[in-house]
Amino acid sequence: MAQDAWPMTLETGSSRDAPQARSVATPWVEAPLYLRLADTMVVLTAVALPWSTTATAFFIVLWLVLLIPTIDWDELVRSLATPVSAMPLAFFVLADIGVLWSGGPWDSGIKGLNPVSKLLLIPFLLYHFRRSPRAAWVLAGFIGSCTLLMILSWIVVVDPSWKISATASSGVPVKNYIDQSQEFAFCAFALAPLLLLAWTRRQLLMAAGLLGLIAGFLANMLFVASARTALIYLPVLLVLFGVRHLSRRAMLGLVAVALAAGTLVWTTSPYLRQRVADVAIEYRAYDANVPASTAQRLTYWRKSLKFFADAPLLGHGTGAIRHLFESDAAGQTGLRAEVVNNPHNQTLNVAIQWGLAGVVVLYAMWAVHLRLFWRMHPAAWIGLAIVVQNLVSSLLNSHLFDFNEGWMYVLGVGVAGGVVLGRADASDRSDAVPSDPRAPDAGSIAAA
Fold this sequence. Notes:
Layout: H1 27-30, H2 32-48, H3 53-67, H4 73-79, H5 83-98, H6 106-112, H7 114-117, H8 121-129, H9 135-158, H10 177-200, H11 204-223, H12 230-245, H13 248-268, H14 270-287, H15 293-310, H16 321-329, H17 346-373, H18 378-393, H19 403-432, H20 442-447
Helix pairs in contact: 2-3, 2-9, 5-17, 8-19, 9-11, 10-11, 10-12, 10-18, 12-18, 14-15, 15-17, 17-18, 18-19
């Protein structure tokens, strides 16, 4: 049984609920067509994200250029004092000043700012979608784009000539299977509440269509191409969905269905069994000093802990990771001689560069964003799924700093967070409206 009623699109505030623009704004900036154009740039950013890094960067920069003339700077500055906006800024400020004590070359410190700089867009997205009524367009654009990618992925399995990128692996038309898994998993869980609502309303045709789409995303991950990290965050998202949207009895039913489906998939998917079996094989490569995915991670983590212990409070500075690995690799051979700038763990990535100070800021940001989305609202579920998926997947990757996963976080938190904050603003305004003393109270109405 669903514990809350879900609208079929994200609930957003209307323009009349939004804060009024200051009189200094020029009329062309206030025009609905101009604001629609700005919203469209964010939609195109979401559409481009699964396919192209260049197009994604182009559209988000174009959106920012269109946004700047519409900003009420006093209002924006006030919003920066709220934790949801302040923590991403604090993260960037720490990375910025961390260049000063970086142990690596100066240009490495500057390059080290790039993965963190995208967090600066979160306050602007929160500000914009606090007043925009078109947040649902962004979600629809992203899911539609991923649906096309999923269909193409199934085609590529049959005919590899359909690959767009020559370097892509089997079943992956563009980019890589890690990015593709992250996108498909999010889409499946973003659609799950809509499936639940359609089912409870007996809209069986819509429910069947949503179920087919969700099944297509999950089946592609389990039979075609999947990151092994997905085997960790998929169960977490499933439990989270049950806790947020189902009664206890329905939750038990979901767990039973998931276990039965998991057993069926395990017995029918040689791909999945091989992916899991490879972990044990790759673990043995660690002792043999031979490069392999699991062995590489273990090596990176062991070295990263040593680097962190050498500078536990403020770390080695922004962009220092590669320099540290280069120094440690001197005289080594095989796996121990590998040089990387990503230890494949978000916490260690931050700890090496900015020590405990950075780790505190990282987890404070995650905690603040989790708290923002821990409420019963359609947009809140989207944001919650994004934050939890990023947090869990970052145990085995530096996903906040990776391009696709990092931009999913920025867009998800910024757009969904703006909707949640806008709804809270509307609620506060309605509570602040004084009641008409001439109006009859509830008791008098009932008595009449």
